[in-house]
Design a protein that fits this description.
The protein is built from 16 helices and 14 strands. By secondary structure, it is α/β, with parallel strands linked by helices.
């Protein structure tokens, strides 16, 4: 199946612009803007609000367009389809007005948090401009931080400080934002996107992700495992599935717009009872995939599967591109002091979503799991067992065979039990 056949009809395209800049999933280098406060770990684990997360899923329903209303308008019922934009930047306001109109929605604009407070809870989606530094007290986190190309990495630090779920850098992200707003007006249930990353090199994140995916599939869930590391050598090699027919990331490199979830599912290869999307396990240099394409694939995956596991690499680009679309993240670290230090540093690069630690080690390790979790500042969610022969099994593509062992199944079950409340 070609990538063109995967595309869904999309809402009217957002307007083009001559400006250039990063798109929705780039992550900052160190150095927060003046006035932005880095959130504490507790805030990072709870910032993603459920209403906002649900708003990213669904099918668009056309509405009349109302833009530019700074003064309070007519009373709106609790189930409002209105988008609230909080910004004092006239240029940014104009850009968002055109995007909301293209999406067939209604827009209310407030110049600051005080003006926005009466409409915050009833809005279907809350957008916050990059000029905003304070939010109304006791309100849900904004869905999207909206900025302009040229503002640079500071947008991502500000998003983390405000607890925003996503960042849209205009005008490059205009089409993505129009589609996001269209879906938000009629949300439907979707699957959980769980990211898995290593707290240090060689932590065993890929192994843990495969075993969790295998166990979830055996429990009867529709599962997709996504290779989020283009430099990792190819997830398909660890699954011994390089010859399995189906799409790889390179086949989606030029995809754009909305992707049909059923067609995506039908086009992906299967191993161990679950679908997977891998980078090719070859020596050839592979073309990159734009962040907007990754967002489209993950959105379709969320709508087509009950559990989406993303094996996120530790490199800067994988963290920027994949981590910000995850609902929850597991950090895998060996039971070592050095790994604990590295994991603590990694937290500063992760988005403000619920994050937990998984320890890899043998029973009776010098540093036990609870102690490492306390030092890192994350709750402990499981223990990946040290199974003899795992390294050789990875090289030979036999991880699925090892996944049937009792200790491995016990680990995977402990993770899935804790995720039970978040799974559809």
């Amino acid at each position: 199946m070609s990538r063109q056949h995967l595309q869904e009809p999309t809402p009217e395209s957002a307007p083009e612009s001559t400006r250039s800049g990063p798109v929705t999933a780039n992550r900052p280098a160190p150095g927060a803007p003046e006035g932005a406060r880095e959130p504490g770990r507790a805030q990072r684990r709870s910032a993603r609000a459920a209403p906002a997360r649900a708003a990213s899923r669904g099918v668009a329903a056309a509405r009349d367009v109302q833009t530019g209303a700074r003064a309070p308008g007519a009373w709106l019922p609790a189930e409002s389809a209105e988008t609230l934009l909080v910004t004092g930047f006239d240029f940014l306001r104009g850009e968002v007005e055109r995007i909301v109109a293209a999406a067939g929605g209604q827009l209310r604009v407030a110049a600051d948090a005080t003006e926005a407070a009466p409409f915050w809870d009833t809005a279907a989606v809350v957008l916050v401009g990059s000029d905003i530094r304070e939010l109304p007290p006791r309100r849900r986190a904004p869905a999207v931080l909206v900025g302009l190309g040229g503002e640079g990495d500071s947008l991502w630090h500000l998003a983390a400080a405000l607890g925003a779920e996503r960042v849209a850098v205009l005008p490059d992200a205009a089409a993505w934002l129009a589609e996001y707003l269209s879906r938000s007006r009629s949300p439907e249930a979707g699957g959980l996107v769980l990211g898995v990353t290593g707290g240090c090199g060689g932590a065993g994140a890929t192994t843990a992700a495969i075993w969790i995916a295998q166990a979830a599939a055996e429990w009867g869930a529709r599962v997709l495992l996504i290779d989020g590391d283009p430099w990792g050598g190819g997830l398909e090699l660890a699954l011994a599935a390089e010859e399995s027919p189906g799409l790889r990331w390179t086949d989606l490199s030029e995809a754009s717009g909305s992707i049909d979830p059923e067609q995506l599912s039908d086009a992906l290869p299967v191993a161990g009872g679950f679908s997977f999307l891998s980078w090719p396990g070859s020596r050839e240099r592979q073309p990159g995939v734009e962040a907007a394409t990754v967002g489209g694939v993950l959105d379709a995956a969320r709508r087509g599967y009950e559990l989406v596991l993303v094996d996120i690499g530790r490199g800067t680009e994988p963290l920027r591109t994949f981590a910000w679309d995850c609902d929850r993240i597991l950090v895998v670290a060996p039971a070592q002091l050095k790994a604990a230090v590295s994991s603590a540093r990694l937290l500063q690069e992760l988005p403000p979503v619920e994050t937990a630690l998984v320890i890899r080690g043998k029973a009776g390790a010098v540093l036990d799991g609870p102690l490492i979790a306390e030092s890192v500042g994350l709750p402990l969610q499981g223990l990946v067992p040290e199974v003899k022969g795992t390294a050789n099994a990875t090289e030979l593509g036999r991880l699925l065979e090892m996944g049937r062992r009792r200790t491995v199944r016990r680990f995977a079950a402990s993770v899935l039990d804790l995720l039970g409340g978040d799974l559809p």
